[in-house]
Amino acid sequence: GRVHVADTGNHTIRSIAMAGDHAVSTLAGTPLPLGAANGAGASARFMFPQQVVADSSGNWYVADSGNAVIRRVTRAGDVSVFAGQVGTPGLVDGTGAAARFRSTDCLVGFGGRVVGRAIDASDNLYVADRGRRTGFRAREPHAIRRITPAGVVTTLASGDALGPSCLSCPAGSEDVFEHIAVDSMTGDVYFNSPDGLRRLRAGSVTNLGALGVYAEGPIAIDSARRRLFVADGNASGLRLERFDISGATPVREVTLDPRTSPILALPERPELYVARPGQLAVAPNGALVIKVPALDVILRVN
Q: Which of 46, 76, 186, 208 is the right S-S partner for 11, CB 3.0 to 4.6 Å?
């Protein structure tokens, strides 16, 4: 009944009621002061948190991008480091503090940037761990990592299998690798790449772009209903696509385009169309929840 949000600019984790007046509260952290402190509620500190996902026990896991670690937030708001070591980026498998995640390439230059997050039915976390920039339009290979409930980090895939080298990426597309989703029924992992959505299945990567399935924005999976959702946007508005994943390959079912679907405009500001969604999630009733950083809003699409 609640949506949890990584409030990146305020360095906090917020909680929003889905019903009633949609009351917003701060679960962990204090607005604006950034840092790496563990602790309860307001005493904890984050540095540019990117995403949160929940496990079956109600704990929340945060990609604490500026600190290059994965943090855990309990239902009571107690914050601790789940995997990685604060301020020590890298690509190292291991358990808990022995693991390392990649460092940042963002302009502010702080710590690390762990971007996409997902979780499966067994509470394994999946991380899109973006490679560090090493030169003009060049960076280290990306990696997909898995973290078990015991904190054991392994690399499932990395390098060319995750997409073309950024030396050959079209201008502006080298940062596409940042969204990830997992099908809890099959264990398939879907993620962005510059030349199309890709799927990791049993150690093998398939480029779904060859089938016309592209995603530069966030993706989400409704495993129970066998649906894959893709969102992207530009100055014209938010574009949503829904695919049936019950077969061997995704089949496009419907596309909501801002040019033909005025419902994608903000009801209270019809002149403002949504651009560049930041994260996508599926509520238990099938509704979509969309984080739109450019407008500082959370949208729900029923």
A: 46
Picking from 119, 39, 127, the residue whose alpha carbon sits closest to that of residue 83 is 127
Q: Specify the pairing of strand 265-266 against strand 269-273.
A: antiparallel
pTM over 0.85: yes
What sign for the dihedral angle of Cα 96, 9, 258, 194? negative
C-alpha gyration radius of the chain: 18
Tokens 């060049």 -> residue: 138
pLDDT of the residue at 260: 67
How many Å apart are CA 188 and CA 186, to the nearest integer? 5
C-alpha span between 224 and 185 (Å, rounded): 8
Q: Other C-beta atoms within 10 Å of 276: how many?
A: 17
| Contact residues for 14 (Cβ-Cβ < 8 A; gap 6+) | 4, 5, 7, 24, 25, 26, 27
> What is the spatial distance between Cα 282 and Cα 291, in angstroms, rounded to a whole number?
12
Distance between CA atoms of residues 126 and 70, nearest Å: 11
